[in-house]
Write a structure and sequence with these properties.
The protein has two helices and no strands. By secondary structure, it is mainly alpha-helical. Helix 1 packs antiparallel against helix 2. The chain is elongated, with a radius of gyration of 18 Å. The chain starts with a helix and ends in a 6-residue tail after the last helix.
Length: 91
């Protein structure tokens, strides 16, 4: 399979893995936030009862968890795709 064909064939898998990564990272973040802050929900940017530091920390933690989860899910999807087709989808 050509590299262009592999990229095209991988698209549906990539889209699905993005959705899975988003759902997983949301659940992971919720559990981490409960342990770190002792609260069920992270502060939103427009909630006045939280300090700037808390809001920014929550957003940074959520972003880091999302990026790491997405990278892990994308990598696993690419490896599975390669095992099935013999072509790496990102090259």
């Amino acid at each position: 399979m050509s590299s262009k064909g592999a990229k095209l064939a991988y698209r549906p898998i990539g889209l699905l893995s993005g959705i899975v990564a988003g759902a997983m990272s949301g659940a992971i973040f919720k559990q981490v936030w409960k342990k770190v802050a002792g609260e069920d929900d992270a502060p939103a940017a427009l909630q006045s009862e939280y300090r700037m530091r808390e809001v920014v920390l929550a957003a940074a933690l959520q972003g880091a968890i999302f990026a790491a989860t997405k990278a892990a899910v994308d990598r696993a999807g690419a490896r599975g795709f390669t095992k099935l087709t013999g072509s790496w989808p990102g090259d």
